[in-house]
């Protein structure tokens, strides 16, 4: 991700200021040390919201890299529900804001990323059983 690498290059320059960060919704650290920052959002955020979401995540990245410039960190926007299902999630509002393939996880892709392949499908089946009983 180009923006993170730009932050990495300057993360130890200039005067450091204490900042009050917005907390991310999910912070994961993989066994190999890579840090993943997730911001969970509604299914239909507007364009202005995407700018703020991205900014918040990059501020968190800057804080992590200021402490450890060699840290491996990535940011993702997660949308747990696809209102267009069974069609693919498509929002014009995110065009140019996110690298959709790397920075966005929607519905089954999000849950399967956190769990394992088929997690989302298993959850849908379990929820249907609960509702029907």
Description:
The protein is α/β, with parallel strands linked by helices. It has one domain (2-10, 22-132): type ii restriction endonuclease, domain 2, CATH 3.40.1560. It has 5 helices and 4 strands. It has helices spanning 2-10, 47-67, 100-103, 108-114, 119-132, and strands at 26-29, 35-40, 73-79, 104-106. Strands 1-2-3-4 form a 4-stranded mixed β-sheet. Helix 1 (2-10) crosses helix 2 (47-67). The chain is elongated, with a radius of gyration of 17 Å. The mean pLDDT is 84.
Q: How far from one another are the termini?
A: 46 Å
As a percent range, the share of helical residues equals 40-55%
Number of strands: 4
CATH architecture: 3-Layer(aba) Sandwich
- Classified by CATH, the class is Alpha Beta
Largest sheet geometry: 4 strands, mixed
Number of helices: 5
| Radius of gyration based on Cα positions | 17 Å
Summarize the helices and strands and which ones pair or pack.
Layout: H1 2-10, E1 26-29, E2 35-40, H2 47-67, E3 73-79, H3 100-103, E4 104-106, H4 108-114, H5 119-132
Helix pairs in contact: 1-2
């Amino acid at each position: 991700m180009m923006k993170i690498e730009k932050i990495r290059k300057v993360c130890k320059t200039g005067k450091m200021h204490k900042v009050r960060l917005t907390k991310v919704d999910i912070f994961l650290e993989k066994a190999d040390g890579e840090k993943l920052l997730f911001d969970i959002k509604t299914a239909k955020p507007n364009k202005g919201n995407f700018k703020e979401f991205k900014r918040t995540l990059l501020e968190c990245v800057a804080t992590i890299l200021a402490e450890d410039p060699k840290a491996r960190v990535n940011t993702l926007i997660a949308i747990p529900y696809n209102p267009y299902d069974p069609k693919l999630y498509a929002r014009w509002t995110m065009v140019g804001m996110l690298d959709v393939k790397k920075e966005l996880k929607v519905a089954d892709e999000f849950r399967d990323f956190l769990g394992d392949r088929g997690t989302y499908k298993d959850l849908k089946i379990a929820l249907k059983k609960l509702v029907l009983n």
